[in-house]
Design brief:
223 residues, endopeptidase fold (from Nostoc punctiforme), 6 helices, 10 strands
């Protein structure tokens, strides 16, 4: 009798899991993508393998597309264009270009907000883009200063994805808080609402009108 009940419940559980994932990753973004058709067509092969250093500025936001399980989940969680899975902030120094970002990378022993070279950030990556907020140089410096400040606070990666907690941050949450707090403007909004919580997705970081594309590995194709 117990075995029979289990076999009856299994299909129901499977349906429940499918519904949960559909609500999280595939429900309302279809309409959003339809609103941005030009953003969904890119050339297949990269025009550039690496960003041009002379075009980069402090405070620029760099996006990348990873192919691990976590990267795929992050990319698909966006409500709009599902192209990038991770983001960080450009930090230019005399010693090179670095990226400040929040990530859990067990392979390299990283957990939270940290700084690494752009070469490490883009290792094995073929899809990337750099965006810039159309703001004053002072505000860009404020953004960088705040990002550097957070990198020294031992902030761990936020596995709870809770925007109300500053002791832990996930990648898009880090950019969201850096930009909004250092500029005293709500330039980025939490566009994903799910199971009673607000989430900042990768797409939320560059979908606004004040953020312009500086360079990308794949040219956008005009329809």
């Amino acid at each position: 009798m117990i075995k029979k009940s289990i076999w009856i419940l299994l299909p129901l559980i499977s349906i429940g899991i499918f519904w949960f994932l559909y609500q999280a990753f595939g429900n309302d973004e279809v309409k959003m993508v339809q609103k941005i058709p030009s953003m969904t067509h890119y050339e297949k092969n990269p025009s550039l393998k690496f960003p041009s250093s002379n075009l980069l500025e402090n405070g620029d936001i760099i996006f990348r597309r990873g192919y691990g399980v976590d990267s795929t989940i992050s990319m698909n969680f966006s409500q709009g264009e599902k192209r990038y899975s991770h983001a960080g902030m450009i930090y230019k120094t005399d010693k090179g270009i670095f990226i400040i970002h929040a990530e859990e990378d067990q392979e390299h022993g990283h957990n939270g907000v940290y700084i690494e070279s752009i070469e490490e950030f883009l290792e094995g990556i073929s899809i990337w883009a750099v965006y810039r907020f159309d703001l004053s140089e002072k505000l860009h410096q404020n953004m960088l200063n705040y990002a550097l400040e957070l990198s020294k606070k031992n902030i761990i990666f936020d596995m709870d994805f809770n925007l109300l907690d500053d002791d832990k941050m996930y990648c898009s949450e880090f950019i969201y808080k850096v930009i909004n707090r250092s500029t005293s403007q709500e330039l980025i909004t939490a566009g994903k609402h799910f199971v009673g919580k607000n989430f900042v997705t990768i797409f939320d970081l560059y979908k606004n009108d004040i953020n312009k594309l500086i360079q990308s590995s794949h040219r956008l194709l005009v329809q």
